[in-house]
Write a structure and sequence with these properties.
Two copies of one chain form a homodimer. Chain A has 162 residues and is mainly alpha-helical. Chain A has a domain of 82 residues: Winged helix-like DNA-binding domain superfamily/Winged helix DNA-binding domain (Arc Repressor Mutant, subunit A), CATH 1.10.10. In chain A, 63% of the residues lie in helices and 7% in strands. In chain A, a hairpin with a 7-residue loop joins β2 and β3. The N terminus of chain A is likely disordered. Chain A binds a DNA duplex (30 and 30 nucleotides) through α4.
Chain lengths: 162, 162
Amino acid sequence: MPPLKRPSAMRDTKPPASNPASELPHEATKAMPIALLRAREALMSRFRPMLAEHDFTSQQWRVIRLLNEHSTLDAAQLAEKAFILPPSLTRILANLETRDLVTRVQSSSDRRRYLFTLTTPGEEAFRKISPDRIKVYKEIEAYFGRDKINLLLSLLDELAQF
Amino acid sequence: MPPLKRPSAMRDTKPPASNPASELPHEATKAMPIALLRAREALMSRFRPMLAEHDFTSQQWRVIRLLNEHSTLDAAQLAEKAFILPPSLTRILANLETRDLVTRVQSSSDRRRYLFTLTTPGEEAFRKISPDRIKVYKEIEAYFGRDKINLLLSLLDELAQF
DNA sequence: ACAATTTAATTAACTTGTTAACCTTATAAC
DNA sequence: GTTATAAGGTTAACAAGTTAATTAAATTGT
């Protein structure tokens, strides 16, 4: 027997108190923030356990990954690329420095800036996790298809301009 | 003069250490989690200041909004609909109860459950904020278009199944 | 009826998100 | 050159995300 999702006998929704036509057509838009959250969670729930095995949060990992790609970045660049706010980034970098995965050197040309680099153990950690990471990417592509991924990405980018 | 986004003289990216063809095609997929984050932030950055004026976080508001729609929900239903994990929800509900916006009654049929309802001030808060909220929805639709919104939503829902 | 298992919600501990204030160094104005 | 202003990063305070452990009540098995 197919599961009853919403027996019409048990209605738990109030009729919208007073809903002029001008306010009705926003149902889709209203659902957008949570839809974005759910989609993201569907992805992250695959990455998180794998990263946790290596004692990384996804944000810590994002920083590691960016430093592997760019070798040296200052905090502002990291914040922009990883989409992490400065106060969070400060804590994350402090954590990674404590664990000897990342080092900082003060910029000589602008002494407000600090330049961050992976240590050798940091690079090793990156290499150690990468294969698992790629495995998950392949699963996602196998499920969703590369065309849909690109379409979705372009819609998301456009929305992000808003 | 168009801004130079990436003068080719200053390359800061390492060549990918060793990148067999099998590992190359994941660039798009790799960007997906952050693209979802950025798109969501583009929306939330409109709602947050407006909610903050009324002393609500977006999560608190989600709970208020759901209780307005459904009049009575238990914590499990709220967690599922608002996509908030139980420990966060416990704190949010405690906060809203302290502010007399929400009340709880213990379910008589299952005394592990608590049923939550908006108080009169809670309903007033909802009504007070609603017009601003709808204004933002309209801006989003004006910018993005309802068709794209529906397309995006269906892609997100499909991805969320993963 | 009783022990074992499951479920709803909470608590604990830690990390991150969010805003505002702050400190230090660069840059701009005069 | 000195003062004002801006920019990079950190600190502080509180809310929320995340995982694991806990408590109390319901359900299952026997």
